[in-house]
Amino acid sequence: MDLRLDRLTVELGGRRILRELSLDVPSGRVVGLVGPNGSGKSTALRCVYRALRPAGGAVWLGDTELSALRLRDAARSVAAVAQENGSGLDFTVAEMVALGRTPHLRGNQPLGERDRELCADAMARMDVAHLAGRGVLTLSGGERQRVLVARALAQEPSVLVLDEPTNHLDVHHQLGLLGLLRRTGLTVLVVLHDLNLAAAACDRLGVLSGGALVTVGSPREVLTTDLVREVFGVAASVVEHPETGVPQLLYTLPETLEAKTR
Length: 262
Ligand SMILES: Nc1ncnc2c1ncn2[C@@H]1O[C@H](COP(=O)(O)OP(=O)(O)OP(=O)(O)O)[C@@H](O)[C@H]1O
Description:
Blueprint: E1 3-12, E2 15-25, E3 30-34, H1 41-48, E4 56-61, E5 64-65, H2 71-77, E6 78-81, H3 93-98, H4 113-125, H5 141-154, E7 159-163, H6 171-184, E8 187-191, H7 195-201, E9 204-209, E10 212-217, H8 219-222, H9 225-232, E11 235-240, E12 247-252, H10 254-261
Parallel strand pairs: 3-8, 3-9, 6-7, 7-8
Antiparallel strand pairs: 1-2, 1-4, 4-5, 9-10, 11-12
Bound molecules: adenosine-5'-triphosphate.
Adenosine-5'-triphosphate binds next to strand 2 and helix 1.
């Protein structure tokens, strides 16, 4: 299912946080949202998982406007791995993942066999099955993050939005998660800080700065030395990955540049 952010404008605390942000995430594609701290990435995602109502514009799922759906119906289509995520609740891992099935169950209906299979599959895919009986509050940051992704997968959505999902993950699990996102066939909008991971994992990248979209395109089109300097204020060389051809950035510490020019 296509996801479309259409001229989203958000105002918070008397400030305009997002300005007419438009971004298409075609069905089955992985689109990354990158940008400096405070540029509005999480705010954009919060509009998609309905934690925030935009002052202007709309989010579209296919040809349905998201705000026209009941929350429960929206939750059958869109799953979120947010930064604020209810992980302060003292559930076991299995219970937390089972919460992903809530939009598909009626009232207090218990999990059926298929629900349990989906939860077990999601836990296996995120490598947390061995933690099923543990309390989520006892987990490490990375383990907890993987549980939250498992909960989102168990939700069986068509659209998955994730806010910095690789935070806390070791490199093995970072690559595992991003590889999985590509394999799921879901429509994915993901906020990432690591531009090299974003280039490797995403079909397209949208770059936000000051609440506005600076550019959108393939990683090769977007990740240029000029853009990285202008938007992030850092010096970087762009090289091609020798095996995949994906652009990768080699950063230079400011002190190194200063020393070179001295
Ligand atoms: N409730 C609020 N009231 C006022 N300002 C807010 C509120 N929520 C967020 N902001 C501001 O909106 C701006 C965008 O925040 P947002 O969390 O979307 O940025 P971000 O790009 O996700 O940043 P980061 O990379 O640091 O996670 C920031 O300047 C933030 O301080």
